[in-house]
């Protein structure tokens, strides 16, 4: 009963993660946690197939979970984006993709065969080859702590263009996600604060409430009534 989620990492520079899930009843909603990446999401419910491109999410929010639905998603890596659907226009929003069937959908004037969990990378390679998907390597380099040899103003502009978020916002969201994963794994709160550089416990609490939608206590105890969306170590 609930929501079964499976995910995997990817060796594609354009892809952060590939995931799929099935809702099996007994669950009305979930908490969608903040995320710095956009994604392509496909779901089917009662014979209807839907496709959407979702932008980054800057705060936790409640999301409905329809009964007996299947979901599949490709989460793009930081700095990967669709120029015709720029993420700076999709922050906390999504864009529906038309003409979706079980076999195909329309994207940027072309018909695309529906991807799946096992061939996501081949699908993404075609997106990149046909200039539907682009990637700014500066974003990934800066997030790795490398110096791109550009002015701060230029770096900020490229972050906003590729991700829709500032570099500071991305780091705050990613830190909260890491904190949530550590707490779920049983790491003591003082260790989480020290390891991730929070000022004190109230600082951590505010961050978790805003970006994860949970207190540290609820994260440690688990919450089967309202599960979290895909939460993995960034």
Overall description:
With 234 residues, the protein is an alpha+beta fold. The protein has helices at residues 120-129, 137-143, 152-163, 167-184, 189-196, 201-211, 216-221, and strands at 3-8, 15-23, 29-32, 39-45, 48-54, 61-64, 69-76, 80-81, 94-97, 104-107, 110-113, 134-135. It has a six-stranded antiparallel sheet with strand order 1-2-7-4-5-9, with helices on one face. The chain starts with a strand and ends in a 13-residue tail after the last helix. 30% of the residues are buried.
Notable characteristics:
single chain; 234 residues; alpha+beta; six-stranded antiparallel sheet; two-stranded antiparallel sheet; 26% strand
- Characterize the overall form: globular
Structural class: alpha+beta
Distance between the termini: 28 Å
SS elements, strand count = 12
Mind summarizing the main beta sheet? 6 strands, antiparallel
Elements, N to C (H/E): EEEEEEEEEEEHEHHHHHH
Secondary structure tally, helices: 7
Uncertain segments: none
Q: Helical amount among residues, as a percent range?
A: 25-40%
Instruction: From the alpha carbons, calculate the radius of gyration and give it in angstroms.
Output: 18 Å
Biggest β-sheet: strands ordered side by side in the sheet: 1-2-7-4-5-9
Report strand %: 25-35%
Can you give the mean pLDDT? Answer: 92
């Amino acid at each position: 009963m609930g929501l079964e989620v499976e995910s995997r990492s990817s060796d594609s520079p354009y892809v952060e993660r590939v995931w799929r899930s099935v809702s099996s009843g007994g669950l009305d909603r979930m908490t969608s946690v903040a995320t710095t990446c956009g994604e392509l999401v496909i779901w089917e419910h009662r014979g209807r197939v839907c496709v959407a491109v979702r932008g980054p999410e800057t705060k936790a929010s409640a999301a409905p979970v329809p009964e007996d639905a299947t979901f599949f998603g490709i989460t793009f890596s930081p700095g990967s984006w669709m120029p015709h659907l720029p993420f700076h226009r999709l922050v906390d929003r999504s864009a529906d993709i038309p003409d979706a069937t079980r076999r195909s959908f329309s994207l940027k004037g072309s018909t695309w065969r529906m991807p799946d969990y096992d061939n996501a990378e081949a699908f993404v390679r075609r997106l990149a080859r046909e200039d539907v998907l682009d990637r700014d390597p500066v974003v990934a380099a800066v997030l790795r702590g490398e110096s791109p040899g550009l002015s701060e103003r230029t770096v900020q502009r490229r972050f906003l263009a590729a991700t829709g978020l500032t570099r500071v916002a991305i780091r705050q969201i990613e830190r909260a996600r890491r904190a949530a994963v550590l707490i779920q794994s049983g790491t003591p709160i003082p260790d989480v604060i020290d390891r991730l550089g929070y000022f004190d416990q109230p600082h951590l609490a505010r961050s978790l409430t805003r970006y994860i939608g949970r207190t540290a206590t609820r994260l440690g105890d688990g919450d089967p009534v309202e599960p979290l969306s895909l939460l993995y170590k960034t």
